[in-house]
Design goal:
The chain is of the alpha/beta class. It starts with a helix and ends with a helix. It has 3 domains: 56 residues; 249 residues, Endonuclease, Chain A; 164 residues, Endonuclease, Chain A (2-Layer Sandwich), CATH 3.30.870.10. Strand 2, helix 7 and strand 3 form a beta-alpha-beta unit. The protein has a 16-stranded mixed beta sheet that branches. A two-stranded parallel ribbon has the order 8-14. The protein has 19 helices and 18 strands. Helix 2 crosses helix 3 and helix 12 packs parallel to helix 13.
Length: 490
Amino acid sequence: MSAELAVIVGVALVLADLAIRIAALIIVPRDRKPTAAMAWLLAIFLIPFVGILLFLLIGNSKLPKRRRERQQEINRMIAERADRLDLAADGAAWPTWFASVVEQNRRLGALPALSGNAARLIGDYQGSIDAMAADVDTAERFVHVEFYIVSFDETTKGFFAAMERAVQRGVTVRVLLDAVASKRVSNHDATFAELDRIGVRWSFMLPVGVGRGTYQRPDLRNHRKLVVVDGLVGYTGSQNLIDRSYNSEKNLKRGLKWQELVTRVTGPTVTALNVVFLSDWYAETDELLGDDENLPAGEVPFDSSPDALVCQVVPSGPAFEGENNLRLFLALVNAAQERVIITSPYFVPDEAMLYAITSARLRGLDVQLFVSEIGDQGSVWHAQRSYYGALLRAGVHIWLYPGPFILHAKHLSIDDDVAVIGSSNMDIRSFALNFEVSLLVRGASFVAGMREVEAGYRAIGRELTLEEWEREPASAKFLDGIARLTSALQ
């Protein structure tokens, strides 16, 4: 290369670098949280060509316009039907703050709160899958199954057998599974072949497209987990349909086992869970299922006992305008008067969530956080650790669930009668990038059951103290800080 050409190339690179930086300052902050914008700008300024390439690939957290319009259409249909329902007979007796949270959820996710429900918690891994299979064996009309990960293995074979028996009885069985996560499982080909063999109707969720108008960043995933049988029985929670080790070679080598929490629900709210499935089925297959595939809420058996629960299903994800789950969690933490107890396998809160949690402690509340002592994802684990110092200094009690278990349960409870359980982690990814489903529950009996679960976590775990945390080596805290910075790249 001649000296003159080298000068021209050098000048061109400098101008390109300057153009990237100027464009980034204009484009990146637009409609983006300041922390996320700063993280992206730092990446682009430090490594401009790589940074801008990453931004073009994963910098847009929105789904294609058609998919977002489909969600708006679904929300309008739900709202029209919900307006004709009056299944929150005790609504006048709700505390004002709870009524306002319910209204916020309805405006964001379209689904109303419904009275007359019953629910029980299941913390046994195999037991929850067996319970789902037993209910599938009672199906007469339809079974709807939706999981982030579906795998045909020794742990789940009983559930697959129940689906096969249902198909043989003439029951329509539909299955939705995330396109990326389920394909990462080692035996995915055998799983898809088994779904075909037993005759269920199944579809991938959020397949990655590259065509015009169909491209979406590949890490926008459907993380929901739910099962609905005949509109009468529903399940939701943290557990995927896979072996406790996730059939991963690295997990098996470390002896890792996932600890989950699932709830089995009956009553009108099962209809709302089913609506989430129906909306996802419509979004993925273009098939709008009719009334035959849902039992109207008014026809579902209504629990009139003193322990009956008020429940509200809250869907969230990048097809919605607001971060529905984050707003729900913030509202509850800010409304708490006595205690806030959070369980999350991946705890990477945004600034608003961190302030809400530490402010609750400053108001004198008992605030506790349950997390795993070890991590299965290094970057997330380090990002999570970066918040421990601020939490401990505020007086938050942090409980570490011991290895080789990964505490994968996801729930939040406040005071003595309100809780949330579902698929959503307390992290930026679940707030902005993943489709999630959360179940808001009001009822002292349900929260009492959650308190028993939390007592079990304490019995097996240990509390992290500020003194212990301050002895952590500087090198570890440096990695924590770097991971925290990159976690904001949303």
